[in-house]
Amino acid sequence: MSAPYYIEILAENGEVRQRQRMASLPIRIGRGYDNDFILDDAHTAAAHAIVEEDGAGGLLLRDLGSHNGVIHRGKRQLQVALTGDSVVRLGHTRLRVRASNHPVAPELSDTTMHNWEGLRPAVAGLAMIGLSAAFSNWLGDAEAFDPISYLMIIAYALGGGLIWASIWAVANRLFGQTARFGRHLFIIGCGLLAMEVWELGSSVLAYALSLEALTRYGRHMFIAIVCVMIYYHLCTIKPQHPRRFALVAVVLAIIGSSLILLSNLQISGRLADEPYMSVLYPPALRLSPDHATDAFFRDAASLRQGVDAERGKAAKGDADDDDSDSAE
Question: Looking at the predicted structure, is the pLDDT value of residue 178 above 60?
Fold first, then answer.
């Protein structure tokens, strides 16, 4: 290892919080002002450790008799051979020492949209959240127009969106150095708008084309949209791991859909969300060909025969039970 040397203080996630250049060895580390590298940590000693040569061209960090010691790989050590990737803990401070010839990782491809940051995505996200909330309330509103109710719905939706985006922004600040609040707000706005489009579009298509599966299993699409939102939130924080986050999103979608199916089966005995198409539109929207009344009555008669047969079996079983009781 060749001079100069660099001492780096690391965050819990491995990000470098502080880096200081040292021209030569030895390097004294501690809380005292006479050290070469001063630690602002009340859990470190005035003279805590020293970095020096090990006699074979490497670096050695040695404890100077501190109370809390030097922790490496979860164990207290009197001395640690430093490889450049070795992370030690002095008090509550995690640090490593690297020489100037330490190799660095290859440059990552930049997948960040630098031109879509700050105020513009934040305003767009808020607009989409407000519009989706107002539109959803308008579709289900059967009473006279009340502006106060619409304002309250929009206010609640904006508040929820701001809380959701704030949580992700805090995570972005902790693990990605910058908050990127506007991007996270834009993601949730797109997600809510996609949910509204799906809810309206799927019900119209289901009615127009007799595709009842779109309404019977419609909640699974909402789960998928939420998982896509989570994927983009995670990629905003750490854009270098898209495949890992895609796998996380797929696993969450599978878990969510499985829970919905199990819940439906437990409540109603069916896997579907609802037994029939509950949303009806004007007949002008129907594209599927109409069924003849004769076919309808034939199906009804077949259904009645099946029900009568089941009733007959049940009545016969009850009669047999009564006969056996009389014989006894």
Answer: yes
Residue 223 φ then ψ, to 5°: -60, -45
What DSSP string runs through 55-111? SSS-EEEEE-S-SS-EEETTEEESEEEE-SS--EEETTEEEEEEETT---PPPPP--
Q: What's the rounded Cα separation, in Å, for the pair 98 and 83?
A: 8
* DSSP code per residue over 301-319: HHHHHHHHHHHHHHHHHHH
Compute CA 7 distance to the chain's CA centroid, rounded to the nearest angstrom. Answer: 35
Tokens representing residue 55 in the block: 């006699």
256 touches 282 (CB < 8 A): no
Task: Please tell me the distance from the alpha carbon of residue 249 to that of residue 17, in angstroms, as a whole number.
Answer: 30
Note if the bond before 4 is cis, omega within 30 degrees.
yes
Query: What's the chain's Rg over C-alpha atoms?
Result: 33
In 10 A of CB 241, how many CB atoms? Answer: 13
Contact status, residue 81 vs residue 60, Cβ threshold 8 Å:
yes
208 has pLDDT over 90:
no
Q: Which residue has the higher pLDDT, 202 or 49?
A: 49
218 CB burial (10 A radius; 0-12, 13-18, 19+) = middle
As given in the structure block, the two tokens for residue 41 are 């940590």
CB 216, CB 273: distance < 8 Å: yes
Tell which residue, 3, 95, 6, has the closest CA to residue 57.
3
pLDDT-derived band at 272 (thresholds 50, 70, 90) equals: confident
161 is written with which tokens? 């969106």
Residues with Cβ < 8 Å from 84, sequence gap 6 or more? 1, 96, 97, 98, 99, 102
